[in-house]
Specification:
Layout (H helix, E strand, L loop, with lengths): L6 E6 L2 E5 L10 E6 L2 E5 L5 H12 L10 E3 L18 E5 H9 L2 H10 L4 H11 L14 E3 L2 E6 L2 E7 L9 E5 L4 E3 L17 H13 L4 E3 L8 H23 L4 H7 L14 H13 L7 H11 L3
Parallel strand pairs: 4-5, 5-6, 6-7, 11-12
Antiparallel strand pairs: 1-2, 2-3, 3-4, 8-9, 9-10, 10-11
Helix pairs in contact: 3-4, 4-9, 5-6, 6-8, 7-8
Length: 313
């Protein structure tokens, strides 16, 4: 069993995972696919220093990583895209929905929040705690050069790489990166292992279907967007979480509780070992949006204020 430690982990047959414990806010995973002199990178990291460190570690493994041919972004979040500019000259492939989300926002907002956090009281303390490890200064938004919808197939040497759009779920444009012959899938943030997931977009039914799709795959290696390498039991555990919170949130919605009241009321005892439990706030607000049919998202200022209260150290 692979230990959960920072760095490159050999999956065999020219595939590697790059893991970043503890898998919490911003500490994302990435992947590398190599065949001959061709290479494909799955995602970059949250800032330039972390991404540069990862690329250096990969170059030490294989000459093909010295010049990445193709970068695939599994979704739009900065902890999977802010390092794109360091993959100079690569084609950057993502779903069309991912590209649209990336164009709508970049690192400037996070940098501004970092700079203002000392003036924001409890929320600022929380933001500093979850994002203070990262340096967003100097990050330039580097969008995809190619997009697709539904499915696409790439080749890395003789390796077939299937891109499968399963969003909207975590974000609007989530994809899976599946190598059928190598029996491996890189899931992006469709999988959070040992940590609470975040339903930024939804609906939850799409996420459940994405989990089912992974379970149905003939794969041995599953690389999540956050957390340690996992197997299908890890996928099933996450699916069970979604079923549980959807059921519990619906009870409270029908009883007339607000989303904020429900988030504070739902017991998470069965998930007490998972990190970032305050994300229940985002998830319940997203579920309430589904229940009501009102697509208007709750402001992030409100969500982070509520999470800050739940996450008091």
């Amino acid at each position: 069993m692979t230990t959960y430690k920072k760095g490159v982990h050999d999956l065999g047959n020219g595939l590697w995972a790059y893991l970043q414990p503890d898998g919490g806010w911003g500490w994302s995973n990435a992947g590398l696919v190599v065949d001959g002199d061709q290479s494909l990178l799955v995602d970059t990291l949250f800032d330039l220093e972390l991404t540069g460190e990862m690329l250096a570690a990969m170059r030490d493994l294989t000459p093909a990583a010295a010049s990445i041919d193709t970068l695939v972004n599994t979704h739009s979040n900065g902890d999977h895209t802010f390092g794109n500019e360091l993959v100079s000259g690569a084609r950057i492939v993502a779903s069309q929905a991912c590209a649209e989300e990336m164009a709508a926002g970049g690192p400037d907002r996070l940098l501004q929040l970092q700079q203002q956090s000392s003036e924001m009281g409890e929320v600022g303390d929380y933001l500093q705690r979850i994002f203070g490890h990262f340096n967003f200064a100097g990050v330039h938004l580097t969008p995809p050069t190619e997009t697709f919808s539904k499915e696409a197939t790439l080749e890395v040497g003789d390796k077939e790489v299937r891109l499968i759009e399963v969003g909207p779920a975590h974000t609007r444009g989530d994809i899976l990166v599946h190598l059928p012959e190598e029996r491996t899938v890189f899931t992006g943030d469709i999988l959070f292992i040992e940590g609470h997931p975040i339903i930024w977009a939804g609906p939850v039914e799409n996420w459940l279907r994405a989990c089912d799709r992974i379970v149905e795959m003939d794969v041995d290696s599953i690389v999540p967007g956050h957390g340690p390498l996992t197997d299908k039991d890890g996928v099933r555990a996450l699916r069970g979480y979604f079923e549980y919170i959807a059921r519990e949130a619906r009870k409270r919605y029908d009883a007339g509780l607000s989303a904020s009241e429900a988030a504070n009321d739902i017991a998470l005892d069965d998930y007490s070992s998972w990190g970032d439990a305050e994300r229940i706030v985002i998830n319940v607000h997203s579920l309430y949006r589904e229940f009501s049919g009102d697509p208007t998202p709750t402001s992030q200022a409100v969500l982070f204020a509520e999470m800050a209260k739940l996450a008091k150290p």
